[in-house]
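re: that chain from earlier
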Amino acid sequence: MSSSIIYLDSNEAHAFQYHTAKGDQFWKKTKDAKLSEDSYYELLAKELENTRELILVGPDAEKKSFRKWISINKKQLGKALIAVLAMDQLTPGKAKFFQDKYFY
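^ sequence. v structure.
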């Protein structure tokens, strides 16, 4: 089980995942214009499926939309959500700060 911080904006998602089977990881997914919002969120949720703690950051509209989607479609992931924070960008330094502050 991992701990994840995901940043979402209207074009892409960035995630820092800690304590994974492969060690700490960073990934980025660009939103393909051909994908529906549901398909894009499904893709993100699949990447986060082994998350036991989740922090969601980004501009209000995107993170609210994803938060609502996981609460309806991926209830287990929704239960992992421990913080939702407004932010313009997620840097490795900010991710490390959140890791130290929120994750065990």
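The first strand starts at residue 2 and ends at 8.
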